[in-house]
Amino acid sequence: MTRELELRRGAQRVVVTSLGGGIREWEGVLAGYPAGARPPKGHGQVLIPWPNRIENGRYEWDGETHQLPLNEPPYAIHGLVRTVEWDVAGASAFEHVLEPQPGYPFRLRLRIEYGLDDGGLTVRTLAENTGDRAAPFGAGFHPYLSGAAPAGELDETRPFDGRYLSVWGDDAWKYVQLFAWHGDLAVEPMTCPPNAFATGESVIRLEPGDVFDARWGIAP
Questions:
Q1: Which are the contacts of 5, defined by CB distance < 8 A and separation ≥ 6?
Q2: DSSP state of 48
Q3: What is the domain range of residue 118?
Q4: Could you give the number of structural domains in the chain?
Q5: Burial label, 11 (beta-carbon count in 10 A; 0-12, 13-18, 19+)
Q6: Which of 7, 8, 20, 135 lies 20 to 30 angstroms, CA to CA, from 117?
C-alpha cells in the first residue's frame, strides 16, 4: 500500500511517496503528479543502484558478466527501486532492502531522508552493502523544476517566479543531467554518468559493510 509523508515549513509543503521513495509534490517549485498515479517521465524518482542508462543492460564486475533486464530496450534504465514500495521509517524517511536479483546479485540496505527548512529541501541518501561481496553502486534523483525549461541554453540554476532556484549537492554528486519536458526542467544530480556500469567511470565500489552517505538539495 502506497503511503505519503508531508513536510511543511511556513508556506512550503513537500509530499514524498513510498512508491519508489521519491518526491511527488512541492507546490510552486517542482512539477508533481496526482496522488495514486505513477510518475510521468521519472518525476521525483530515486535512481539506485545506477542512474540513467546502461546500454544493452550488460556490464562486467570483478571478472563476472552481468545481464540486467531491459526495461527500456535496448537499455536498462534508472536502477531497480523506482516502482517498489519503500517502508516508512519515521516522519520524513523511507527504507528499502534491495535483495539480490538477476543482473544485480548484491544486497543493499537503502534509506532516503527528506528535510525541509528555511533553506529549502535537503535529501540524504544512505546505502549500506549488507551482502558478502563488493557491489557496484551509483545513485541519482529526478526532480523537475516546474515551468523552468528555458528556450535557450540550459543551466542548473534558472530564474523562477522572480527568484532563482539552486540545485546543489555535496562532493558525491559529480554529474548533473538536464532534461526538458513539457516546459519543466529535470535537473538530475548523479554520482556517475550514463552507462557507468559498462564503462566503469565513477562507479562506487561498496565493500561488505561499506556505507554510502551523501546529500543534495534544492534552495528556492
A1: 15, 16, 17, 88, 91, 92, 94, 114
A2: -
A3: 4-219
A4: 1
A5: exposed
A6: 20
